[in-house]
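FAQ

Q: What does a record look like?
A: Structure on top, sequence underneath. For example:
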């Protein structure tokens, strides 16, 4: 591929605690994700998926390893090179969390418009774009609702609109479709595909959701903190456990 990776992780390790309580959540994980790619991160519960997403999202420190965005090193030997991680996140990364994390005292529109205003957009334009995104995700009719009054699926769609509002080039999603029926899961995947193409973005999705397995360009499997070599072969996915086995050794990393 001619492009350079938009996200390059090199030998990232992360442990929590020390001594007897030490948990090695990630062990030497190396991963390249290219622009316009939709990548799935699979693996059993506790295998390190959320930990990896949080490090790529610059909201969790690594114990060791390096990371670059679009050729620019942001993490080297386990240390952040950028002092302003908040700005880095705001401008580059859209995060859809496992739980929606909406701000409880702002309505749906303002939850989405807020990130635009934080990056300097005027309030009216920010709200207009927010409503446009909410409409696209079929939750526009709930634009004045407070998060506590939204259903789980509605809140998740507002959170997705918020993650996409700033047109980030790196989109990270932790189980984005788990609360959605298959039609709405399809709308979300269509939107992520559209964003990947239009914004030249990379999309990394942690998922157990069989409904969307065939929507990804590449699938990677974490097991016990290690990324298994090569792309997962969808034909060998053990769907009942939400766990994948890896097809032939070639390709991948
Ligand atoms: N803050 C923390 N402190 C201590 N241990 C942690 C912490 N966060 C995660 N872990 C441990 O690290 C390992 C990986 O956790 P992680 O949340 O990344 O798993 P996951 O693959 O996302 O699992 P799930 O599918 O259940 O969401 C687990 O053993 C978990 O208990
Ligand atoms: Mg998780």
């Amino acid at each position: 591929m001619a492009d350079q990776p938009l996200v390059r992780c090199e030998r990232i390790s992360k442990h929590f605690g020390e001594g007897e309580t030490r948990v090695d959540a990630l062990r030497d994980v190396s991963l390249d994700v290219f622009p316009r790619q939709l990548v799935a991160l699979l693996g059993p519960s506790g295998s390190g998926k959320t930990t990896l997403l949080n490090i790529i999202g610059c909201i969790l420190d690594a114990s060791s390893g390096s990371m670059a965005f679009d050729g620019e090193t942001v993490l080297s030997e386990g240390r952040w090179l950028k002092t302003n991680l908040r700005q880095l996140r705001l401008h580059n990364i859209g995060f859809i969390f496992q739980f929606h994390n909406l701000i409880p005292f702002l309505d749906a529109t303002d939850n989405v418009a807020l990130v635009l205003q934080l990056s300097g957009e005027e309030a009216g334009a920010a709200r207009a774009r927010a409503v446009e995104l909410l409409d696209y995700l079929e939750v526009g009719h709930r634009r004045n609702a407070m998060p506590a009054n939204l259903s789980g699926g509605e809140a998740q769609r507002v959170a997705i609109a918020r993650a996409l509002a700033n047109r980030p080039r790196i989109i990270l999603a932790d189980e984005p479709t788990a609360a959605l029926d298959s039609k709405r899961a399809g709308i979300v995947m269509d939107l992520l595909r559209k964003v990947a193409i239009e914004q030249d973005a990379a999309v990394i999705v942690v998922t157990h959701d069989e409904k969307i397995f065939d929507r990804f360009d590449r699938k990677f499997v974490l097991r016990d903190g290690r990324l298994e070599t090569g792309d997962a072969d969808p034909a060998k996915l053990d769907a009942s456990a939400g766990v994948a086995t890896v097809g032939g050794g070639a390709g991948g990393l």
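Q: Is there anything notable about this one?
A: Residues 90 and 118 are 8 Å apart (CA to CA).
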